[in-house]
Structures are given as C-alpha cells and as structure tokens.
Specification:
Rossmann fold, six-stranded parallel beta sheet, alpha/beta, 18% strand, 10 helices
Length: 235
C-alpha cells in the first residue's frame, strides 16, 4: 500500500514537506510518494499565466495515481485538500482520503469561499495575478512548533501561486464516494481549529492532534500512526 501526499499552497518542493514521514511510515509497512504541483514552482516563478492552476494540480495527482498498481491512501494538507477532492473522484485505487488541517470542499466550493478576511500573512498581487506569503509572519503562524531545521527548510521553500487556484471548485467530490479522515490540528494558528472542525463534519471520522499547521514536520511519528491506522483498517 502506498501513501501519496499533496502539499499546501504557496510553497514548492512537495517531497521536502513530507520527507519526515517516509521513515516512520516505512517502519509501519507503508510506502510513500509526494506529488509536485505545477502551480507551485521554485522562485523566480514564471508569469501566472504560465503556471498550472488547481485543475492542473489535480491532474498531476491523477497521473501519479495512474502509476500506482496497488491501493492508495491520498493525503492532502491545507490547500491540498482541494486538490485531493478533485483528483480522487472516480479513482478506484484510492481507498481512503486524509485531510490534514485542510479545506474539504463540496460541489461548487472554492478556496476563496472559505477564506473570510485574508490572514495578515497573505500577500496578493492582483496586477501580477499571484498570491504569496509574507515570510516574516510564517514562523509564528505556521511553524511555531517546529524545530530549527524544519523552520529553516520551510523558509527556503516559499513561493507565489496563481490567484486562479483560489477561485476554482473541484470537478468531482471524492469524499462523497470514499471513506475519509479529517486530522484537526488543535494548536494551528493559521487555520483555526474551529474552522477545521466545521470541515471535519463532512469526514467519515475525525482525529485531533496537538500540533500546529505542519504536523508532518513537528510530529511526523504521530501523524504516521494516524495514517497507518486508517490505511490498514480500510485495507
């Protein structure tokens, strides 16, 4: 069985964001793979029109799923929840969806629908058609419970993303046809736990972990156990 990971918005290098999960999941008998999203590339990013959008990101995940022979647990973090909802619709080899402090959209819903007032860390540039993140606000909001190595790595992997991704609904809603688990990160300062719990009502099951926004960096062994339990329960 393989665990396929999809990272969040405004960062690049998907494999790095999940690299601390590889060892713990291997020890539990699970392979891993992280998808690189075409809307999230290393800076200097090309013009927004040259980047992929949310649907291109979902198509990249679909292509990765097509390469897997066995069953897959598909994990989406933050914005990645939008991507996996679209990508897994109709895919028979996806046995379970895991949403980690993420959006969990229904038909017609977009990232923009869930945002409310933009967080102070957001850095939109409408004239460029891109969204970015204010680097100085990342540590206290997103990675306050991570060690120095993780913080340094995260800060090196911030990027800008096309604004279009925030206005696109999923083409299908995978959680309506597959079992799902929502992982609420109860110490998240970026996505309030109350907002996470609203999304979590849509999931088959809910698990809370005492972490900030990036449990795959701050508590990888804990998150690995959560993923392993749902993988083998359904497998």
């Amino acid at each position: 069985m393989k665990v396929v990971f999809v990272h969040g918005a405004l960062v690049f290098d998907g494999a790095w964001w999940w690299h601390r999960m590889d060892g713990p999941l291997a020890a539990l008998g699970l392979g891993t793979r992280a998808v690189e999203l075409p809307s999230c590339v290393a800076p200097p990013a090309p013009p927004a029109a040259a980047l992929g959008d949310m649907r291109a990101d979902a198509d990249a995940v679909r292509a990765a799923l097509d390469e897997e022979d066995g069953p897959v647990v598909l994990v989406g973090h933050s914005y990645g929840g939008m991507v996996i909802t679209d990508a897994a619709a109709g895919r028979e080899n996806v046995g379970h969806l895991v949403y980690v402090t993420s959006v969990m959209p229904d038909v017609g819903e977009t990232m923009a629908d869930f945002g409310g007032e933009p967080g102070p860390w957001m850095d939109p540039r409408p004239e460029e058609g891109t969204m970015g993140i204010r680097a100085e606000l990342v540590p206290p909001a997103f990675i306050h419970d991570c060690d120095e190595e993780a913080v340094a790595g995260a800060m090196q992997r911030l990027t800008r993303q096309p604004l279009t991704v925030f206005g696109q609904p999923p083409r299908g809603v995978a959680w309506r046809e597959k079992p799902s688990t929502y992982v609420v990160c109860s110490e998240d300062r970026a996505t309030p736990p109350e907002a996470q719990r609203v999304f979590a009502r849509r999931a088959s099951r809910v698990i809370e972990v005492p972490t900030g926004h990036h449990p795959m960096l701050s508590r990888p062994e804990h998150l690995a156990r959560v993923i392993s339990e749902v993988a083998f329960e359904d497998g």
